[in-house]
């Protein structure tokens, strides 16, 4: 019986960390808050090509680290975009908590995600955007795979899409791959992401796997 495990979750604790870095007694409420806030941010910043959203809490302070391939679009002129985003995040937190939040406790940091073609989340968003523009899906898959494999550090890639491709009556699944993607090797650095393309004939799911080599833990030297 075949069983599937999320490639990112499988490697947490080996060489990957959590997207939320904190611990609190009211763990349930804070975790729910993180999940809803992260989903809301991804929807709001969908056109900014966000790669990763990390949330770090220290006391009452909440730090939101956003990695994007288009930092200029997010920051805005003179940092106006960051201030606007901070106000909306503050409003969303107050909506989730149903109480006032001190604006000083919210900090937003934006970092540029380099080599967008080697980040699974950005590749998936690029494929979804092209499908929404009604480009031929086979051409999109082929060009995206070629561009990804040409990116430094990528040893293998696999891209899969499913839905009413090309507006067909029945949904189907298409995929393309190059190189190797060893999903069962724990030390293999496999980056995975999924995205949804919203087209006129329905939604199309996009999944991307990128293999970036193996990670070996350095042996710690012990001194007597």
Q: Identify the CATH class of the largest domain.
A: Alpha Beta
Radius of gyration: 20 Å
User: Kindly state the mean pLDDT as a whole number?
Assistant: 88
Shape: globular
CATH topology of the largest domain: GMP Synthetase, Chain A, domain 3
Number of domains: 2
What is the count of helical runs?
Answer: 6
Terminal residue distance: 49 Å
Strand content: 25-35%
Tell me what the CATH architecture of the largest domain is: 2-Layer Sandwich
Amount of helix: 25-40%
The secondary-structure class comes to alpha/beta
Question: Order of helices and strands, N to C?
Answer: HEHEEHHEHHEEEE
| CATH homologous superfamily classification of the largest domain | K homology (KH) domain
Strand order of the largest sheet: 1-2-3-4
Number of strands: 8
Description:
This protein is α/β, with parallel strands linked by helices and 224 residues long. The chain has two domains: 7-112, GMP Synthetase, Chain A, domain 3; 116-214, Ribosomal protein S3, C-terminal domain (Ribosomal protein S3 C-terminal domain, 2-Layer Sandwich), CATH 3.30.1140.32. The protein is 32% helix and 30% strand. The chain has helices at 7-10, 27-44, 71-75, 80-97, 120-132, 137-149; strands spanning 20-21, 50-58, 61-68, 106-112, 156-163, 172-179, 188-199, 202-214. Strand 1, helix 2 and strand 2 (50-58) form a beta-alpha-beta unit. Helix 2 crosses helix 4 and helix 5 (120-132) packs antiparallel against helix 6 (137-149).
